[in-house]
Amino acid sequence: MKxxxxxxxxxxxxxxPMLFMHPEMGQASGFWHGFxxxxxxxxxxxxxxxxGIWAVQVGGKAIWAIPLSFVGMMIVGGIIGMSGVKIxxxxxxxxxSVMVLGVLIVASARLPLLAGMLIAGIFALFHGHSHGTExxxxxxxxxxxxxxxxxxxxLHLSGIGLALFAGKKIKVQLLRYVGASIxxxxxxxxxx
Length: 192
Prior knowledge:
Low-confidence stretches: 1-28
Radius of gyration: 16 Å
Mean pLDDT: 83
Number of domains: 1
Shape: globular
Order of helices and strands: HHHHHHHH
């Protein structure tokens, strides 16, 4: 079976039960919990892959600037969450990040670099805040955060790799298909 024939939508729907399977509050501590945490929620995985894919579509400096702005602002959001400061509509912001990033990929939206970094940064605040609130007060927040940031960066790199190494003939079509699947998953998350 050729890569372009793989039904990515079916893959997403098979993984749909994992949407909000984050470790329970109070169980997170240390580097490895932080590293594994982003990999346990489909909402986070899809958004992180989408950031990498979209950064490649924007091209140029965006390939590194958009993912790094996401990681930086995610850390800021995590600090805000750890400090107990509330951000309204965090879960809605996370779901919107999945939907909007999927749509940006479908549209191959080549926004100015600053606009792309701003979009990534705003969504990152929601993701970071959500996970920052899950770090127990007794945990080593810095090691958890380092693990979380490294795992997030690896997911971004996976999205970048998918976008860069997709065959040139099928690249645009494949990425739009992936973006549509991500956006549909985001819409479905609204009802979970």
